[in-house]
UniProtKB/TrEMBL annotation:
It holds the Pfam family PhdYeFM_antitox. Belongs to the phD/YefM antitoxin family. This is Antitoxin. It comes from Candidatus Accumulibacter phosphatis. It comes from the Bacteria. The lineage of its organism: Bacteria, Pseudomonadati, Pseudomonadota, Betaproteobacteria, Candidatus Accumulibacter. NCBIfam families: phd_fam. Antitoxin component of a type II toxin-antitoxin (TA) system.
Length: 83
């Protein structure tokens, strides 16, 4: 992974964008990573991956709750409880 300082990214923005189309580019400020630039394609792939992972986790939680006897009515009552 290539690394640019924030100033380098600003001064060479075109190069920075071109490189980010090929691989993630780390951005450093004051000797710490403050961001990573990725291509739009990679970003959408990451969003899809995490959305799928979240859906899988929610499905597993729903199955476990149903197996433990949690009914939709009981879930609604728990969610409505403001105490």
């Amino acid at each position: 992974m290539q690394t640019f300082t924030a100033n380098q990214a600003k001064a060479h923005f075109g190069e920075f964008l071109d490189l980010a189309q090929r691989e993630p580019v780390r951005v450093m400020r004051h000797e710490r990573v403050v961001g990573v630039m990725v291509s739009a394609h990679d970003y959408e792939a990451m969003r899809a991956f995490y959305a799928d992972r979240l859906q899988h986790t929610l499905d597993e939680a729903a199955e476990a709750a149903a197996a433990a006897g949690l009914t939709p009515a009981a879930a609604d009552a728990l969610l409505a409880d403001e105490s």
